[in-house]
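quick one, two chains, predict together pls
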Amino acid sequence: MIFNSPGFLLFFCLFFHLYWWINEKGHVRLRNLLTIVASYVFYGWWDWRFLGLIILSSAVDFSVGLALDKSQEERARKQLLTVSILVNLGVLGFFKYFNFFVDSFQQLLSVFSISLQSSTLDIVLPVGISFYTFQTMSYSWDVYRRKLPACRDPLVFFAFVSFFPQLVAGPIERAGRLLGQFERRASFGYQQAVGGLRLVLWGLFKKVVLADNFGLLADQLFDQAGQGSAVWAAAFFFSIQIYADFSGYSDMAIGCARLLGIELVQNFRTPYFATSLSDYWRRWHISLSEWFRDYVYIPLGGNRGSRWQVARNLMLTFVLSGLWHGAQITFVLWGALHGVFLILEKRIPLSPPLWLRWMLLYVLVVLLWLPFRAEDSEQLWQLCQLLWQVEGYELSPLWMLIESFSVPRFTCLLAILGLFTAVEYQMQRLDFADWIGRQATGWRWGAYYLLATGILLMGNFEVKPQFIYFQF
Amino acid sequence: MSAVKKFYRNIALFSLPVLLLLLVWPMDSRQQFQGLSGDCFGHGLWIHDRLSDPSNKQDIVFIGSSRTLNGVDDSLIQAELPNGDQQVLNLGYCRLGRNISSVLLKKTPQAGSIKQLVLEVREDEDRYSHPVFPYMASTKEVCLANPFFNPDLFSDCWTHFVYKLELTQDQLYDQQPLPPLSTATFGQARQLDTMPLAQLEQAVSQRRTHKVSGWQRDFYLNFPRSYLQHIHQICQDNNIQLSFLYLPAFGNASALPKEANTYQEYGDLWLPPAALFEEPTHWYDDQHLNQTGANKLSQWLSQRLQQ
């Protein structure tokens, strides 16, 4: 079930009414049970067979949390944490990385002229597995570090792991933030619910108007890229697509949760307005960046130690972050390149004017999307070669694509992009709900209708509803 | 006012203008029929052009699924009828769903008066909405499509409004000219090949049947039955003679259609000779007659029409 599908609209309306009705009666445990059932229905819509994995992950971490709370002996506590990590990473490793490691191992051996006969398995990647395993794992870690008491109510814990608005593509929530919200009775707040709706509208606009239209252009350009100009344009369009797609999803997820009285963490903060790479990573996919900071970077030593140690910590964190995105060498490369540029940024302090810093960073981020988007290393190599071929730069392929897409439509799309950029610039660190909430009533309602009109008249309804981050 | 009530009121205030606009937003009917999703033999636009042309008329109209489309040779029937100025028209359209018959029938009288409607019936009525219905029907027809018994009501409404928006967007941005007017008079799609007997028998053995009986069947069939009643009503209002033509799949000719009594309530039930359907050389596949079969059936139909 996808947020921008008719099925979800029906599902959410039904759930919303039932949820608040039970909540108003004061049955918190029943409300949590309903949340779990609805979340499993939501997830099972894709493939009910993988529900077992969520239940396993939830059950293991719930039990580990209880055992950690009881145990005082450090050795036993470490063993319990190891169990949680092994189970979660085991599940993730098998479903996501098994084939990648077998292939990589074979390729490595072939360098030394050793051929190994082994076969990969036809494994289907369960949707959202990287998100919920990280969420449950962080809970056990927090209990182990005594940052958090163990959750004693299985309904609360299972609802925390499976909460459907953020189950398949985040934001990756921390137990410390979310568990408490399931433990208490929620009260329907008008402002909170309206804020939720605003975010849903904004997210939907980003998804169907920006992501799906620019995605269509980017896909065609990547498929037929024969010139440097096409690769530059493709990378630029993809940078808009991925931002609008993922941040649109996050906004809808946060909005849906807010409609249920649950606050989720902000996942994006206008990242393309960052003026340094470290600033960019504080604004892009915040929940994942913070997860890697707290559970990988800092345990590795963080900023402490020599320059080389800090550089090593950064590189390891970003390579792992790349690997988290997908079992493919191109993702690892994407992560590693971000790591390298971050190290360079720390080591070579330059202070060009702000606008230049912003521009350089944006171009760098756009170029770094190439390994992320490339199907494989071969395509990446081709794209990179084309990128620097200055000879034969022509705009005709791009123009042909725009003509086939429709010139008036493209012009409208660019105008909308301009307007969107202006709004994002105004928003800065606020989310859309808060920002629009500060405007006068007339402006607010005008903006709502403008967004609705944009969705109706510019939304791309021909593409099959899908979000890029579901594959991770 | 409680927070919840205020919330619902404001949602309604915001959505109503948008919904109203969506409801009344006009669609260009030629564009509508041209863009049918999964169009059958490119028939959508032809149906529109054929029915909108004031110089064309239709006295005898066949409406049904691909069995009608392949099996009824309208040109042959017209030629065989003694009174030469009777126009016969095959409006068969692939796939099942009784509601599309009603849409086509409603569109037909606009182009001329029909004297006889021959409606295809199969072994049993289908309980679902036709896949093309939300594309072909008007907003009113889609939104009021028997809401109590229509399992596809919600998805049909959604598809219809999305299609409406896509057409509007095409008008706004694409402005590509539609294909020229179709001038073909007859609608039959000819199938010349013959399926070997062994394959026919294999296809019969692989058929799946969903056996539903009792109150469940009655419940499900409320949807097609209500459309049959509606079609009957239109025929009565316009003095159209209504007949039902049984077109079974290969191997099913011996049994009567399950809804035979319903059909007989509204009109004649025509049962072509079973031998016609039992002859393996008459089949393109186990569901559709080939041209040989179509010729035989059409000859029989022309005789039946003369009675």
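Residues 277 and 342 of chain A are 6 Å apart (CA to CA).
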